[in-house]
Structures are given as structure tokens and as C-alpha cells.
Amino acid sequence: MNAPLPDLAALPAALAAHLRGIAAAPAPLGRFPGLSLLPHDSSLAPGQAELLVARLAERYQAAIENRAAVAERLQALRGELARRGLQGLIIPLTDEFHGEYLPLRAQRLTWLTGFTGSAGLCIVLPERAGLWSDGRYTLQLRQQVDATLFELLHITDQPPTEWLKTALKPGDKLGYDAWLHTEDALRRFAAVAQAAKAEAVAVEGNPIDAVWSDQPPPPLAPVVPHGMAHAGRASSEKRAEIAARLAQDGIDAVLITLPESIAWLLNIRGGDVKHTPFALSMALLRRDASLDLFIDTRKLAPETPAHLGPDVRLHAPDALAAALDALGKAKQTVQVDPATAGAWPIRRLEAAGAVLKRADDPCLLPKACKNAVELDGIRNAHLRDGAAVSRFLAWLAREAPKGGIDELQAQAQLEACRRLDNSLRDLSFTSISGAGPNGAVVHYRATEETNRKLETGNLYLIDSGGQYPDGTTDITRTIAIGKPTQEMREAFTRVLKGHIAIARARFPDGTAGQQLDALARYALWQAGLDYDHGTGHGVGAYLSVHEGPHRISKAGTPVPLKPGMIVSNEPGYYKTGAFGIRIENLVAVRQEVEKAENGKAWHGFETLTKAPIDRNLIETALLTREEIDWVNAYHAEVRRDIGPRVDDDTRRWLESATAAV
Question: In sequence order, which ranges of 539-660 are alpha helices (DSSP H)?
Fold first, then answer.
């Protein structure tokens, strides 16, 4: 008989703290990697630690999303604000690291409101509260949030600053946590408060944390070396290169607040947040190439300190304030990125007397330009991922016509196909699995409530990816279930024409993604169609699936596309209430011509993703000869590279799926 689970409170304090931290970290693919960090002299019987952690994790998640407690929580927060002499609090959906994913501890907005979307902001006043998100979440807001407690608002049509103009009263003090807002955001709120004869004030300690009695601790997942076989460049070399630029610019140190930049710079990977393998930490890189890393050292795997080396000094996270004060006292010049850092460390540096230089995080551009080793790894990861996707598509071709498959089952099957590769560490994001009208919701997530069958005559859109030690993948395929309509075929083919236009593009050095975006839309525009998202986002090397500073979009950025950058190529079309179409491959920027007649280098794209595009949706009459040749050449590559990696049944399907059009 299994021994009963011990009471957490009865365990040694250090062991209980470890267990709580491990439970507060993600469990990729159902595993808790932090269990490897437990002390070897743990008093727990085999298997007990895993069961305790699993139960804790379930409890944490259930408590955060406990909508029955929202009214009580809102009342408690208002009581805490009154105790502090505040009339309001701004609650953004972010943490001090301003990343895409939040640890459980930082999910304050969800805990307070019950809203689980990925974009949101809440403002609580004594008698009113507003909750904002964008158009993706209009329906979800109504489903999840009590409209008698919160006004549900569109962040573009009814911006928070406009709401505050009438909601604030003269003399009100509107609180904010300076760690959770950029300088620009706070300037906007301060201006509105001033106009209303109110005041925006920084709080000491987040008021929500004061009333969140069972708030999870910071996550505890192992930090491990990312070896040269995958990184391609030593951390010392990266640090020396950036430090030389700092010295050249007269800068003494740079504050790095993005965990993905630190992961790249130090060649380490972690697991503190979902789908993105980095450790929550901050760092100060000095002009002598030494570095101070502010991190919970309990996370470090036994081999990690030696990997970091003697020039990386380890400090507890709460030692950052004193380090910033010391820089200020010495009147040193410190670089910080105001677009990615919260206002708190910037203000701390200024108050201490430091000379600030506001500039981009110096890791962003070199991190985006992958080296030869990283590119080789990414290519290999895409071959294995392409085999998994092809196995899934072959299964779908066999099973979907029988009926009975739904979005969640299809999504689970694709994950199962990826899990056959033992190197898979996690998914790179939560898969988007949308059938029929659900496919027209760009950032749709299938749930038990929204789950639809893959019915004959519908389109099915599946957007997914994997995290492997040698690369990050992201692929979207749209599949016809049964016979598609002519409207579907024509729309799909126009999307395909845009995809091919990007894939075949050649452009001079210095070209930004914004200048290429129209190529992907031109065929759709000719038919009066378009899509309301970017054409491409950067992708990391076993890092974030959404990586800057480059992208391809209408809004775009001035950052030129450089060799080694990875970017998605994903035009689409979405007919509300009917179907969605997206075709996504990842591509790498490569130099095509070293020096043309004008003296400039010219670049193009190498397509990395290897999986069939549904031939049943291609209306060849709309394609040019060059476009048909591209489709056939691409499918020939898929057949050549993926065929040897799959089983016989999948290989036979692949032969048909990649036949010439």
C-alpha cells in the first residue's frame, strides 16, 4: 500500500519551500523538471514528492481561476487600497520581466477578475472597476467576467486613459506597481491623473500580493547549460563583444531585464514559464565583460555554476536594488532599454545618481542573427518536427472522413506525434486547433465549451510548434475536410500566392520587413480581401517562438532583415462565421548576392519548415508557372527530406500529398 502523503506544513521548511516553488513552475509534457532540484536527503518516500507537487500545482491553478471568489477578492483589494490611502490601482497583465508568459505568482489580473486571456488591463476604483482587452477576447470577457463587478471594455475603442478622465475625482491617488509598467505607459496615466486633478503614485509592494493569501511563490525550475553543440558561440565571446561596444560608447554597465536575453548571453536555459525555456532573472553586464546575475540560486543545476564561470557573479534577486544604488553612487553610466524594462529599476538608478542611457537591449540583434551552428540545429529540428506533422496529417487524412474527430482530439494527436521524438522539451505555444468558423478566430484556443467536430465540407486550421534543444518550430496548415467549396479554394490559393511571394523574395541589404509585407497581401488585395495580423514574427533558437526585434507587418519596425534571422511567413484569410486559412512556414534570411552592381548585398529566404501544403485547396488556374514550380519544388524537398523519417503508411500518404500539381 502506498504511504499517505505527508502534510506540507509538517515537512522541513526548506523542503516545503522547494516543493511549493516546483509546483509554481510549468510542467511541460506533464513532467515537473524542478523535482531534480530537491535535496538528496529529502525525507519523502519515492513518488511522494511528485504527487505533492502535482496536487499543489492543481490547487494553485484552481485558486487563481476561482471565479466564485472574485467579488470577495475585489472587496479585499478595495479594503487594502483604502488602508494605504489610495483610491485606485492599475493592474496590467504582466510581470516585472514583461514577457509573453507569466508565472502563476504574477497572474494577478486573472486572480482578481477570472479572465484568462493573454491581453488585458484592469483599473479598480472605490465604486467602479474597468477591465480591458482587445477584439480577440470580446466574447471571452463576457463569458468569464462578472459584468456587475467590472465594466467590460475594448482597449482600442474605449482606452483606459479615456475612462479615467471621467472616473477619477480631484484629489484621488491612483496607485501603480512601477515594476509592471514602462516609463511611456506611466507617463500617459500620470498625464490623465494630472488633468483630473488627481495623482498617479507608485506603491511599495503590490496591493494584490497583500490580500492574496495563497499566492504561489516564484517558480523553481532547473537552469541548465546550453552547450556549444547547440549555442555555437561561447558566452565569454558574446559578453566580450557587447562589452567592447559598451566601452566604445562610454557606458559602464547595461541592465538586462529580459530573461531570454540572459539565456542567450550566458548559454543557459530554464523552465520558469510556459513554452519558453528561460529562467526568470536579471543581469548587469559590465564593460569588462563580467556579469552580475540576479537569480534564485536554488534553480541552478549542479553543473551550471561551473558552466557560468568565475566572471559571472551570482546574487539573490533582491540584491538588485543595492547593486543599482552602488552604480548610482559611483556616478556610472548605465544603459537600459525603456521598451522592455519596468519603470522601477530606471527610477532607482536615476534616484541613486547614475547617468542613464536609454537604448535597445544590446542582446536583441545578435540573438536574432543565428550563427551557423544554431542554423544547422534549427534545420535539424525542423526535419524532425516535419516528420511529426506529416505523421499527423497522414492520420488526419485517414480518420477525418470517418467523422467523430474534434478539435481537442486532433490537437492531442499532433502532440502525441511530436512526443515520439525524445528530444521534444515542450510545445512552443498552446496549439490553435480550429474547425469551421472557429478557424476564423485568429488566436483561437479550443476548450471543452468551444470544441467542434471536424465536419465534412469544413476547413480545419492547426497552428502549432515544438521546443527542441536544437531549435524552435512554428507551423500552420489548413486542411480541407472532404471537398472544399470554390470560394475556399480561391481564397486559399490567394493566401498561397502571398506565401510564395515572401518565400521567393529577394531584397537589398537594409530592407525591413515592413517593406516586404505588401508582397504577401497583393493577391488578396486584388480580390478585395486582407488579414488583420502581421505576416511574420521573429523566432528564437530554443527560446521564444515570438522574438524581436524584426518582423514582417504593415506596422513593422525599422530593423533591417539580416542573414541568420528566423522569421515566420504566415499570410492568411478569415471569413467570420465560416472558415479560416493560414499557411505558415519559418524561413531564414540568407545572403543571395555578396555585392551587386550598386555595391549592396542582396538577401533572400531559405524555407525551413518541411510539411505538405494541402493540394486539394490549390486552384492552379490562379497560379503562375513560377508559382506552380515553387509548389512542386517545395513538395519535392518535403518528400526527399521527410520520407525517410516516417513509417511506411505515412510515406505512402506523403508520396500522394506531395505529387506535382
Answer: 625-642, 648-657
Give the C-alpha distances (Å, rounded to integers) separating 414 from 377, 392, 475.
22, 5, 12
Place of cell 502532440: 415
Tell me how many domains the chain contains: 4
- The C-alpha atoms of residue 255 and residue 282 are separated, in whole angstroms, by 8
**The predicted structure's pLDDT at residue 1:** 38
Are 405 and 326 found together in one domain? no
Q: Say whether the peptide bond before residue 563 is cis (omega within 30 degrees of 0).
A: no
Residue 613 lies in a domain: yes
pLDDT of 40 strictly over 80 = no
Instruction: Please give the model's pTM, rounded to 2 decimal places.
Output: 0.96
The residues pairing with 464 across neighbouring beta strands, listed in sequence order, are 475
Enter the C-alpha cell of residue 644: 525517410
338 and 397 share one domain: no
- Residues paired with residue 357 on neighbouring β-strands, in sequence order: 335
Phi, psi angle pair for 201, to nearest 5°: -130, 140
504 vs 512: CA distance, rounded Å: 16
- Clarify whether residues 316 and 388 are in a common domain: no
Question: Is 1 among the domain residues?
Answer: no
Residues 195 and 240 placed together within one structural domain of the fold: no
Neighbours of 518 (CB within 10 A): 13
Q: Which of 64, 81, 106 is the last residue of a domain?
A: 64
Cell 480550429, located at residue: 434
List Cα–Cα distances, 12 to 9, 56, 193, in angstroms: 8, 17, 48
Query: Phi/psi of residue 93, each to 5°?
Result: -90, 75
466 and 357 in a common domain: no
Domain holding 288, by residue range, is 224-367
Residues paired with 294 in a beta bridge: 282, 315
Query: What is the rounded average pLDDT for all residues in the chain?
Result: 96
Could you tell me the three cell numbers for 192?
490623465
Q: How many CB atoms lie within 10 A of CB 448?
A: 6
Q: Do 171 and 242 sit in the same domain of this protein?
A: no
Q: Tell me whether residue 435 is in a domain.
A: yes
Residue 46 domain flag: yes
- In this predicted structure, the answer to whether residue 348 has a pLDDT above a threshold of 70 is yes
Asked if residues 260 and 367 have their Cβ atoms less than 8 Å apart, the reply is yes
Same structural domain for residues 474 and 607? yes
pLDDT surpassing 70 at residue 306? yes
DSSP symbol at 46 = T
User: First and final CA of the chain: distance in angstroms?
Assistant: 62
